[in-house]
Amino acid sequence: SKYVYDFAEGNKDLKDLLGGKGANLAEMTNLGLPVPPGFTITTEACQAYLTTGREPDGLAAQIEAHLESLEREMGRRLGDPADPLLVSVRSGAKFSMPGMMETVLNVGLNDRSVIGLSTQAGGNDRFAWDSYRRLIQMFGKTVCEVPGEEFEHALDDAKHAKGTRNDLDLDADDLRALVDAYKKIFAKHTGREFPQEPREQLDLAIRAVFDSWNAERAILYRRQERIPADLGTAVNVVSMVFGNLGPDSGTGVAFTRDPGSGAQGIYGDYLANAQGEDVVAGIRNTVPLQELEQLDKTSYDQLLGIMARLEEHYKDLCDIEFTIERGKLWMLQTRVGKRTAAAAFVIAGQLVDEGLIDLDEALHRVNGAQLAQLMFPRFQLDHDVPPVARGIGASPGAASGKVVFTSARAVELAAEGESVILVRRETNPDDLNGMIAAKGILTSRGGKTSHAAVVARGMGKTCVSGADELEVNVPAKKFTVGGHTVGEGDVVSIDGTTGKVYLGEVPVMPSEVVQYFEGSLDPEHIDNPLVRAVHRIMTHADGARRLRVRTNADTGADAARARRFGAEGIGLCRTEHMFLGDRRELVERLILAGGGRERDEALAALLPLQRADFVEIFREMDGLPVTVRLIDPPLHEFLPPLEQLAVNVAVAQERGEDVAKEEALLSAVRRMHEENPMLGLRGVRLGLVIPGLFAMQVRAIAEAAVAVARDGGTACPEIMVPLVGAVQELETVRAEAEKIIAEVVGDSGVDVLIGTMIEVPRAALTAGQIAEAAEFFSFGTNDLTQMGWGFSRDDVEGAFFWRYLELGIFGISPFESIDADGVGRLVRIAAEEGRAARPGLKLGVCGEHGGDPDSVHFFHEVGLDYVSCSPFRVPVARLEAGRAAI
Ligand code: PEP
Ligand code: MG
User: Fold this and answer.
1) Cβ atoms of 760 and 827 closer than 8 Å
2) Closest ligand 1 atom, CA of 778?
3) What Pfam families does the database record attribute to this sequence (predicted)?
């Protein structure tokens, strides 16, 4: 097979084979841009090497042939003592893995060719010896695993001896001595001399790049980013160009637009007389790219021309790396550049205006996660306020509050109405209460999948993790950072999007995108490019999507807001929420009622309250479907806690009080106590056990609908029965409900549908039978996930998910994004068998997954009619449903 491609043989679509860097170098070469000649060794060669432990047959000969033709083209031979060709050896996988794998520069230098390099550079000895010491350093570290600090110490010693801190003050003699020192370090650690043979250097460097695919940090990065482990990396062998040959040389990076805001213009940094790694290492400060115009106008103009050309060609924001060698511009890399959420929308809109892409493509270029980010409030920073530390943006949002170091203190202060930020080295399951009480969470350890990060995201709470500049001392109740000491009660502000930490309070401003969705910003008349772009792309998504988007809401206010956000109905109105607060006592009476009269009284008291609830919601959702779910309480949420009750009774008895009533309550609560309430007397089971409960609700729904219709409105109720596992359960409820509906509705013209949730695995597997008794299904993917996996949705996220994520057992919590293979399969089976039994069966989903981008694509593909999600997720679901459809 063909393992080596000349740059002229590849193109940008060959990323699988040539990696991102190689494919784009090839593309630029074929565009006629100034790319230093070279070739790419394929990912297939790497895969073969990694599986067999040796280079595949034929690879060495192909490298030889491509090297020879490179040498011919350059008119120089690799490592030739008189006039050497030098090459860089660079990794480049299909997906960018920044800093994860290896690069070796200046391959081909040795004790003899270093002299030739000096001659080539016009007698520049300093440059030649500096290049040589860089080779030994990089080669030693990456190819032979010599500890990098040893080289750095030797370099520091050399500077110290010279009385300077600047590399540039070391002259040729100093650097020659440094090369000797480096060679000794190399020999000490490897037991051999630094290889002088250029081809051996090249082969070892290539092999090291292959091996770096399986470096520990690369494995970890892939696991977190869900990059398959078997892709392998390509290796690019590129003839060296030098940005460190004097003031007429230099190196830089640039973006074709601002990756922060999307604004058009020239964004980049330049460093004269330097090589790429100097920029990364921050040895000297870069200057804005615009200053290159003064330094070298020809190269600057050429660069701008190339940037325009690349944008037009890639039809997107590109980022580039370039080097100028003695006034000659070279392109070292380009790729479609990363950008912020705001820039993604703005740029997509601009590219449509420029005629480079159409609206379908614009919709592809943005996503729901970005839109969700734009909906969080942000810090209002008038000028560049420096953060005091920077960690990982683990869960987005902006939060200010008083610092606390323990969960207990967080709970205390929050109860007093204070905003608190819980600061820990890392959190553990014991911190859950504190995390719930806090406005935000800040840790000095741990990444995006640490306990703190996972739990905070699950709660939608702002979190910065891994801010490792913080020295957190929990016993002393303080942390130190950059010379500041912050104690309990001091105020800090954290930005969970950028990971930045600020001392003191930073004012928070609402998101313009939310203001737009709420209807207070008119996209046609404001000068905000982001809002205009969001409006345009959302409008297109709405036109394209096949999935309807409903909301989960159980109050008129939530329903109204969701409707402004574009909800096309309510997919889940959880009625148990209507029984909390003052009404809890009525429910308690109902559940514990011995028999007829008591129960009827409790129900009669609840009926008008329920009816009023539904009238309010039907009015807000006038003309749109409203799925009302009959009560589904895990019983323990409605009864007084057993222990508390037992203590109260004992205390009262002690005091000689009359406790007959309390004792009756206690024994009833004991009788109904459940070890696993989530698997207990819930949903339809409760409806079947407590006569009259569901009937009261059905009556309230029907009466409310009729009342709204009488006022000239249109109510479209859909009654949904929860937790059904067998068709007989549904049939029983249905028979009773139909009688009541017929009686209430009469000839009012109101139409009431009856359907069921599919949230118990057995329901999914018997969906064909259940569909006989249901006019619609709504998938309750929260319970379906809980029961499908057999883990408690209320307990496990904080308890062990962080470990599962770390191990890669799943890439994301299955409560957040649907487990397509397992739980999703149940959805698929139920959808197919349900529709087969009852063509036209309406299908929706109302678990949390309804607002998750990947899950929305899954539900689209399965062919559901709608997703239903919390009001704030409605725009995200609309966007993703549109993206799924194009
Ligand atoms: C579900 O289980 O997915 C669902 C929507 O119901 P709940 O979350 O109320 O159990
Ligand atoms: Mg449920």
Assistant:
1) no
2) 5
3) PEP-utilizers, PEP-utilizers_C, PPDK_N
Q: Strands 250-257, 264-272: parallel, antiparallel or unpaired by DSSP?
A: antiparallel
d(CA 670, CA 685): 19
Rounded Cα distance, 70 and 63, in Å: 10
Cβ burial 360-384 (10 Å sphere, 16+ → b, else e): eebbebbbbebbbbbbbebbeeeee
Report whether 802 contacts 449 (CB < 8 A).
Answer: yes
780 is in an annotated binding site: yes
Distance of CA 440 to CAs 395, 399, 404, 634, 875, Å?
A: 9, 6, 11, 29, 25
Token pair recorded at residue 590: 């109902």
Residue 227 near residue 220, CB atoms below 8 Å: no
* Amino acid 585: pLDDT: 82
Residues of the chain below pLDDT 70: 99-100, 224, 279-284, 383, 449, 458
Question: Residue 509's CB: how many other CB atoms inside 10 A?
Answer: 11
Residues near 373 by beta carbon (within 8 Å), at least 6 away in sequence? 341, 396, 497
Q: Counting beta carbons within 10 angstroms of the beta carbon of residue 173, is it exposed (0 to 12), middle (13 to 18) or buried (19 or more)?
A: exposed
Distance 744 CA to ligand 2 centre (A): 28
CA 305 centroid distance within chain: 35
pTM recorded for the entire structure: 0.84
Query: Given the structure tokens 């018997």, which residue do they identify?
Result: 766
Q: What's the rounded Cα separation, in Å, for the pair 412 and 423?
A: 15
ipTM for this model: 0.99
Instruction: State whether residue 85 is helix, strand or coil.
Output: strand
Residue with the nearest Cα to atom 6 of ligand 1?
A: 780
Q: Are 871 and 514 in contact (CB under 8 A)?
A: no
CB 871 within 8 A of CB 558: yes
Q: Which residue CA neighbors atom 9 of ligand 1 most closely?
A: 574
- The CATH homologous superfamily for domain 379-509 is Phosphohistidine domain (3.50.30.10)
Half-sphere exposure of 149 (CA within 13 A, CB side): 0
Mutate to test the pocket of ligand 1, among 632, 864, 869 (most ligand atoms within 8 A of CB): 632
3-state class (DSSP) for residue 231: coil
CATH of range 250-336; options 3.30.470.20, 3.20.20.70, 3.40.190.10, 3.30.420.10: 3.30.470.20
Q: What is the pLDDT of residue 637?
A: 73
CA angle, corner 336, sides to 332 and 338, nearest 5?
110
Exposure pattern of 291-315 as b/e (b: 16+ CB <10 Å)?
ebeeebeebbebbbebbebbbebbb
Q: What is the dihedral of CA 56, 61, 63, 65, to 10 degrees?
A: -150
For residue 41, give both structure tokens. 């060794």
Q: For domain 545-633+682-885, which architecture applies?
A: Alpha-Beta Barrel (3.20)
Ligand nearest to the CA of 631: 1
The annotation status of 485 as a binding-site residue, yes or no, is no
4-239: in CATH 3.40.50.1820: no
Topology alike, domains 4-239 and 379-509: no
Q: What are phi and psi of 463, to 5 degrees?
A: -150, 135
**Could you tell me the end-to-end alpha-carbon distance of the chain, in angstroms, rounded to an integer?**
37
> 77 with 84: CB under 8 angstroms?
yes
Enumerate the domain spans of the chain. Answer: 4-239, 250-336, 379-509, 545-633+682-885, 634-681
Predicted confidence at residue 428, as pLDDT, reads: 81
CB proximity list for 770: less than 8 A, separation 6 or greater: 724, 726, 727, 730, 756, 758, 763, 777, 834
- How do beta strands 508-509 and 548-552 pair? unpaired
Q: Does residue 827's CB lie within 6 angstroms of at least one atom of ligand 1?
A: no
Contact 114, 129 (CB under 8 A): yes
- Is 633 close to ligand 1, i.e. is its CB under 6 Å away? no
